[in-house]
Design a protein that fits this description.
- By secondary structure, the protein is of the alpha+beta class.
- The protein has two domains: 3-265, no CATH class; 269-344, no CATH class.
- It has helices spanning 3-31, 38-46, 66-73, 79-82, 96-104, 171-184, 195-202, 229-232, 246-258, 283-295, 304-316, 327-344, and strands at residues 50-54, 75-76, 118-122, 138-142, 150-154, 164-166, 186-187, 190-191, 219-223, 227-228, 233-239, 261-265, 269-271, 301-303.
- The strands form four sheets. Strands 6-5-9-3-1-4-11-12 form an eight-stranded mixed β-sheet. It has a two-stranded antiparallel sheet with strand order 2-10. A two-stranded antiparallel sheet has the order 7-8.
- Helix 9 (246-258) links the parallel strand 11 (233-239) and strand 12.
- The longest helix is centred in the N-terminal third of the chain and has 29 residues, at 3-31.
- It starts with a helix and ends with a helix.
Length: 345
């Protein structure tokens, strides 16, 4: 890692230490009635993989798709280098992402740095669609060794989270998890009735088989330093809609080249006629109909692969879509259509 990347982790650690004893005391009180050591709980939670959800078929700023760049470069880069995002497009000096990163990491990163943290989430329930499906139909699952160069936030960093920590000061995140268990009856996106139930879920050794469909609740992870595919990635999970397509073939090439396990996520698709206006607005069913007609042979469904076809066509042939909105609006609509498919599909 570069000096300023190490500095960022250390500054987060020092920040977390201020309240870490207080958070540890809280977790000990929760664990004690069940004979559970709080450190055992933390260790178990941190054994869950860090996942990075993304769309492999979107264009980067070099006019190649994400997966093409991954194959050629062998490195997963962040938005400041690729110009590609599935969230807000503010990764530039003075942009919102830049400003909150400077605050989040206590100005450790030089303003001109492109080697900034990469964003993922802790897959607490080992969902087969990743920890944060909002950000992509596919995901990389990282090896456990990455954990020592990660920082964590409870919730999305764009919301200015108050709990920020490292793997060795992790009690704060657990404390916030249990605050939501007690106050809101939820453990991330799962409904729970008690702290006892939450403890049982967190200590469970069985993998979740159902899709998580988790759009909004996460333990955000910031990976500092390079993510090298061959050294740092365990598995690549890709939506089954990409099978027998060029993207699917490239996924196989990627995994063979960098010795990564390839896993297929059950295809998420939704009938176009079933898409309403309430979830993400009135333009989403209109866009879905256009995509189905243009790329889906009017079969009445939309999935990750078809949304990707539309994204690339809009990039190359925007005039054909301008009746639905300008470039920024279309970008937003595509995101929202994926949210719809990822949640309901």
């Amino acid at each position: 890692m570069l000096e300023y990347q190490v500095k960022a982790i250390n500054r987060v650690r020092e920040y977390a230490k201020i309240k870490n004893i207080e958070h540890q005391t809280r977790i000990k009180e929760i664990c004690a009635p069940y004979g559970l050591n709080f450190q055992e709980l933390i260790n178990k939670v941190l054994l869950n993989p860090v996942t990075i959800n993304f769309h492999p078929d979107r264009y980067s700023n070099n006019r190649k798709t994400i997966i093409e760049n991954l194959i050629e470069q062998g490195v997963y880069h962040g938005q400041f280098r690729t110009g590609t995002t599935n969230g807000g497009r503010t990764a530039f000096i003075g942009g919102d992402r830049f400003l909150w990163e400077q605050q989040l990491f206590f100005d450790a990163y030089p303003q001109v740095s492109l080697d900034r943290p990469k964003y993922g989430a802790l897959n607490l329930f080992q969902y087969p669609d990743g920890a944060s499906v909002r950000f992509g139909s596919c995901f990389l699952s990282l090896k456990h060794e990455i954990i020592d160069r990660c920082t964590f936030a409870y919730g999305d960093s764009s919301t200015n989270p108050s709990v920020l920590c490292t793997s060795d000061t992790f009690a704060g995140v657990l404390s916030e998890l249990f605050n939501d268990v007690r106050g809101k009856g939820r453990l991330l996106n799962q409904a729970v009735s008690s702290e006892q139930e939450a403890l049982a879920i967190l200590m469970n050794t069985c993998q979740t088989k159902e899709l998580g469909k988790n759009l909004d609740y996460c333990i955000e992870v910031h990976i500092h330093g390079d993510i090298l595919l061959e050294n740092d990635v365990d598995c690549f999970y890709i939506d089954t809609s990409f099978k027998h397509t060029p993207i699917g073939e490239q996924a196989e090439t990627l995994c063979q080249k960098y010795k990564i396990n390839l896993r297929w996520i059950r295809e998420r698709q939704i009938e176009v006629d079933a898409i309403g206006e309430i979830f993400r607005g009135p333009m989403i069913p209109v866009l879905a109909q256009r995509i189905d007609h243009r790329f889906g042979n009017s079969q009445g469904i939309v999935n990750a692969a078809l949304i990707g076809c539309a994204s690339r066509d809009i990039f190359l042939n925007q005039n054909a879509w301008e009746d639905l909105g300008n470039e920024y609006e279309l970008f937003q609509y595509l995101k929202q259509l994926w949210h719809t498919v990822g949640y309901f599909g």
